[in-house]
Give the backbone structure.
Amino acid sequence: MAPDRFLAGDAHARRPGVAAEQTLGILLPGDLADSLRCHNGLSTWVTLLPEQSPLSVSAIVDRWQTCMDIATETDGLTTRPWDDEPWWHPLWVPWAESADGGAQVIDQRPGPNEGRLGWAGHGGGGDFTDSWPGLAELLHAVARAFHCGGGVRGLHPYLTAQGELWWDEEDCHELDGQPLTPAPIGLS
């Protein structure tokens, strides 16, 4: 095997997002790269996290490319006078999606807000209202809710009648007429 092919394969093993980084033209945020070393997102939307389902590396690239294509065709890279953010920015990394298909993004624009989480929805500008300062902070809050109990910004973990994880407001007792049970806490 040629040394450059060996090194490229080795880089992919150490950093599964190398192909994504090449397409996006930026390094993936460290928190996301660390997370992708543990898993490659999810292939279907599930409520593993309170409001979002992590994307696979290929889905990150596909979502980013789709948003870039749409934004380029519709002037979506420009902030409109009534919005605080453009519809899309090339330095936003879509790492997860909501149930309605909105992208949760990691803002990689240099500056004091670099790394914060926000939303890029179907219309309007991006939204960083009450954003998490970074992916690690969100994941730590989720882990704390599972280990110590409590919620994550008002949403608490439950188990559905089928044993699937579901996040909802405190003291929620049913989903679609089926009982919800508070998720067990203190698991390690």
About this structure: The helical segments are 3-14, 18-24, 30-38, 57-74, 135-148.
